[in-house]
Design goal:
Keywords: Membrane, Transmembrane, Transmembrane helix
Structural class: mainly alpha
Distance between the termini: 31 Å
Number of domains: 1
Number of helices: 5
Largest sheet: none
Helix content: over 70%
Order of helices and strands: HHHHH
Strand content: under 5%
Shape: elongated
Radius of gyration: 24 Å
Number of strands: 0
Transmembrane segments: 40-63, 69-87, 124-143, 149-169
């Protein structure tokens, strides 16, 4: 019985979660989601510009090898698919106002988090492989007139960049984005909990 009394006194003396004013929580959530939306929008715009550049290369430059055209087509297709996925994520985040529909937005944000985790997981490797194959096919003809030293340097830089982006930068991007999303979800959960209390 003494143990029960000790446990109940410990339970009572536990610090209660500090209530944060709703307007401050909503401002923090809105600021976080705006930053995510801005980042996605910039990424989509960069992808669109790159896609347009690839169309110009495909239509207005004459290449001798079909490999070059196939490489450009693979790059265009990969960029288009990835941009569509990013636009879907952008629409998902921008479609609801976190200040008015907390529950709905929280569910959308959780869906976005799982979608991005999946995309940065397996899909990112597919994206990198396709982009590498396409760019490699494109570089075969473009680097043909260059010296052997320049070709080796270019391919080494290309391979190093792909490895850096795939195994280092990707991890940092995932970690940073997941932390931001988790922070927003935690704030929304806290806000939802305050409304319940």
């Amino acid at each position: 019985m003494k143990n029960f009394e000790e446990l109940s006194s410990l339970w009572i003396t536990q610090p209660q979660a500090e209530q944060v004013p709703v307007d401050i929580l909503l401002k923090q959530v809105k600021k976080g989601t705006s930053a995510l939306n801005r980042k996605l929008l910039w990424s989509i715009l960069i992808m669109a510009a790159t896609f347009i550049l690839m169309i110009v290369l495909f239509l207005f430059f004459l290449f001798n090898s079909w490999l070059t055209y196939a490489g450009i087509f693979i790059i265009m297709s990969t960029i288009l698919i990835y941009a569509i996925l990013m636009f879907r994520d952008y629409k998902l985040l921008a479609s609801h106002d976190p200040t008015t529909e907390v529950n709905v937005y929280l569910e959308k944000l959780k869906l976005y988090q799982t979608s991005r985790t999946r995309m940065y997981g397996k899909m990112y490797y597919v994206y990198t492989i396709l982009l590498s194959v396409g760019l490699g096919m494109f570089l075969v003809e473009v680097l043909k007139p260059a010296s052997l030293f320049f070709e080796i340097t270019a391919y080494t830089f290309f391979l190093g960049w792909i490895l850096f982006v795939t195994f280092y930068w990707r991890e940092r991007i995932i970690k940073t984005e997941q932390e931001k999303i988790s922070e927003i979800i935690n704030r929304l959960e806290r806000l939802k909990g305050q409304f319940r209390d």
